[in-house]
Amino acid sequence: MKLKLNFNLKETLQKYRRVLILAKKPSMSELKRISRICLIGFFIIGSISFLFYMVSVMVV
Questions:
Q1: What predicted TM-score, i.e. pTM, was given to this entire model?
Q2: With CB atoms counted within 10 Å of each terminal CB, which end of the chain scores lower, N or C?
């Protein structure tokens, strides 16, 4: 099976440029809110993983 890649550098760079033009720097309040949400998510996922680990240790 042959993989065909059509890579157009000029078109790709134009797409990247468009994204960078539309992107904006977040304000400090947005940055704090995003950081808080990520930390809460890490804590929840870590807690669930720890509970699974404790259950597996106690069962075996």
A1: 0.58
A2: N
Residue 25 in 3-state DSSP? coil
Question: Domain count of the chain?
Answer: 1
Greatest Cα pair distance in the chain? 58
Question: Structural domain of residue 49, as residue ranges?
Answer: 27-60
Whether 51 is covered by a domain: the verdict is yes
Question: What pLDDT, in 10s, does the model give residues 43-60?
Answer: 999 999 999 999 999 987
For residue 3, being part of any structural domain is answered with: no
CB 44, CB 51: distance < 8 Å = no
User: Is residue 34 within 8 Å of 26, Cβ to Cβ?
Assistant: yes
